[in-house]
Design a protein that fits this description.
alpha/beta; Rossmann fold; 6-stranded mixed β-sheet; 4-stranded antiparallel β-sheet; 23 helices; elongated; binds adenosine-5'-triphosphate
């Protein structure tokens, strides 16, 4: 309950605002609210999803111009034009997102600048939109018979939208879909390997951010009752991003803080700088530039986390609810072949990392893939899990060729993996990281999450994650940030994440690296238990004692090729292996 006090106080202050605040402050708050709505979208898109956009102002313009034109020219009701604006923005954003989101690195921000500028010039140059003079005479909005004529009245509508946007986005982030969105930032490879459709997830957050911007534009048009292209240019696009970054790009409330700070500061600087400097000009832009550099230097995550640190730490530990266990896939028949790889070759340009490799894994067996550094073991793993498909050869999982399957399709069929270089989301709890593994065992979408209609399923997913964390012996770290664990433990978290998908084949890339002796013993025990339950395990490992004491069969690789294959004892005695590999170790 105490946790909600600051929010309750904030809402109470807002509700009382128009009674005691001067009109000028209400106007300022209205703008803060409008900007915050756009910045909330950017928190989701850029802060959480890692996709930088400078072009959000153009979507604000789409919302504003759609309603301005349709209400003034054709007498449409503002509520109808809101729906039309959202539909139009959705369509435009889908198209732009489809094209730009494929671009990686700095091409994406550049792409957003390009369409931001294009839409701005479209608004300014299309005659029926009033050119650079814009459109006047936009009607007021009526809400349940109440006409919102003054800024005071509009204030309530704007801040209601802000609060609902915060609530919706926070709910979304605290869900299966939210974890998928957050997994984007950890690199698409891990998310895809856990079954997340990353292109779709990117489009979804891009659409949400665009729709929020459109909503802000619609509100703006009916508050101002006049639109012109200026507020929708690229400058404003940069300013929105600036607000989100300063406030705290990874935090929904940071958007409100950033919008508030920048708006008030801008107003203040515009009033005072000309007095101080004795001449007029846009000097605030220079101050903003310096402030941005300072914030990025001193508080990379923005000011919201700094503010949070000043408040007493609230018990944010998540409560786990008893929930019905998730259904499990039917186990493969004992001894049946799960995976076959034949003649697999993988080339990286001129380098042949895997050459004519073959292996198979059965249900209820531990198969180890060993070999010196650079032998090509991880490459083979990546070919099998379609993270980096083979150049030649045949791989079949459960009798089906994986040639046309993506990594997420293979995950859906029951193969799960860990990574040689741990791919966890360091700031997220161990519980949430492991729950990403259960992604494919849930089905609730973005809307259900935003409206909190996914709680039943969510409880089951989290209970499953908790079960796997207990199983791997990390119960006491369940609510710790994954990044705070020792590297060896992080590898174990990856195993729990893989297990949360209920796989029939588990691919473990160096699971024992960084573990202490007793932890290795416990891991070997766990893997034996999983094998006993009928799971197939393919293991890459350098620790020979661990491998030889656990594996049923061993494949030895050298220079990308298979050197030997057989039971551990036989492989250990093989002169070729002794010479090439084990000889150097023993
Ligand atoms: N994406 C890539 N692009 C180019 N070369 C690569 C790529 N991935 C791996 N290689 C090369 O392929 C060879 C095999 O690497 P791989 O990581 O599969 O070996 P490994 O047996 O897993 O080694 P280690 O035990 O050190 O992890 C190496 O020479 C490596 O540099």
């Amino acid at each position: 309950m105490i946790r909600h006090l600051p929010l309750a106080a904030f809402v109470a202050l807002l509700a009382a605002g128009p009674q005691w605040l001067p009109e000028f402050h209400i106007t300022l708050l209205n703008y803060i609210g409008l900007y915050a709505i756009v910045a909330i979208g950017l928190v989701l898109l850029t802060g959480v999803g890692g996709l930088t956009s400078f072009g959000q102002a153009a979507f604000v313009g789409l919302g504003a111009y759609t309603t301005a034109w349709l209400t003034t020219q054709f007498g449409y009701s503002p509520w109808a034009t809101l729906l039309i604006g959202l539909a139009l923005t959705g369509a435009v954003a889908f198209l732009l997102g489809f094209i730009t989101l494929r671009m990686g690195g700095h091409y994406l921000p550049l792409g957003t600048i390009a369409w931001g500028i294009s839409l701005y010039f479209l608004f300014g140059n299309v005659e029926f939109l009033g050119g650079h003079t814009g459109i006047t005479g936009i009607p007021t909005v009526s809400l349940l018979g109440w006409e919102l004529k003054s800024g005071d009245e509009f204030f309530y509508l704007i801040w209601l939208v802000v609060l609902l946007a915060i609530l919706g986005v926070r709910n979304l982030l605290d869900s299966r879909q939210g974890r998928a969105i957050r997994a984007l930032k950890g690199g698409g490879v891990m998310a895809e390997a856990m079954g997340v459709n990353t292109p779709r997830t990117k489009i979804v957050i891009f659409l949400i951010a665009a729709l929020l911007a459109c909503l802000s534009g619609w509100l703006y048009a009916h508050l101002q009752r006049f639109v012109s292209p200026t507020p929708f240019g690229i400058n404003m696009g940069i300013e929105y991003l600036f607000m989100a970054v300063v406030g705290g790009i990874g935090h929904v409330w940071g958007a409100v803080l950033g919008a508030g700070l920048i708006t008030v500061l801008k107003q203040w600087l515009q009033d005072w700088l000309p007095h101080i400097l004795g001449q007029s000009g846009n000097f605030e832009v220079i101050v903003f530039g310096i402030a941005m550099v300072l914030v990025l230097q001193k508080a990379r995550d923005g000011l919201w986390p700094v503010l949070l640190r000043l408040l007493p730490a609230s018990a944010r530990q998540r409560r786990l609810v008893d929930a019905e266990a998730l259904p499990r896939r039917s186990p493969a028949a004992a001894g049946s072949v799960l995976l076959t790889a034949e003649g697999v070759t993988k080339r990286f340009g001129g380098l042949v990392a895997n050459n004519n490799m073959s292996l198979s894994v059965q249900a209820g067996e531990v198969m180890a893939l060993i070999g010196p550094n650079g032998a090509g073991k991880s490459t083979m793993f990546n070919c099998i899990s379609a993270v980096n498909p083979a150049s030649e050869g045949k791989i079949a999982f459960l009798g089906e060729s994986t040639a046309k399957l993506r990594s997420r399709d293979i995950a859906r069929r029951g193969m799960s993996r860990t990574f040689q270089h741990v791919r966890l989301l360091g700031q997220m709890s161990v519980l949430e990281n492991v729950a990403i593994g259960a992604h494919l065992r849930g089905s609730k979408g973005v809307l259900a999450a935003a409206l909190r209609l996914d709680r039943g399923e969510e409880n089951r997913l989290l209970a499953e994650a908790a079960k796997q964390i207990e199983r791997v012996g990390l119960k006491e770290h369940m609510f710790d940030a994954a990044g705070s664990l020792a590297l060896g433990q992080q590898r174990i978290v990856e195993i729990a994440r893989a297990l949360a998908s209920d796989p029939c084949l588990l691919l473990l890339d160096e699971p024992a690296a960084g573990l202490r002796y007793q932890e290795k013993q416990a891991l070997a025990e766990l893997l034996r238990k999983l094998r006993g339950e009928g799971m197939g395990i393919l293991l890459v490992e350098h620790d020979m004692d661990f491998v030889m004491g656990l594996a049923d069969r061993v494949v030895v690789m050298e220079f990308g090729e298979k050197l030997a294959e057989g039971e551990p004892e036989a492989v250990q005695r093989d002169p070729k292996v002794l010479e090439a590999y084990l000889g150097g170790v023993e």
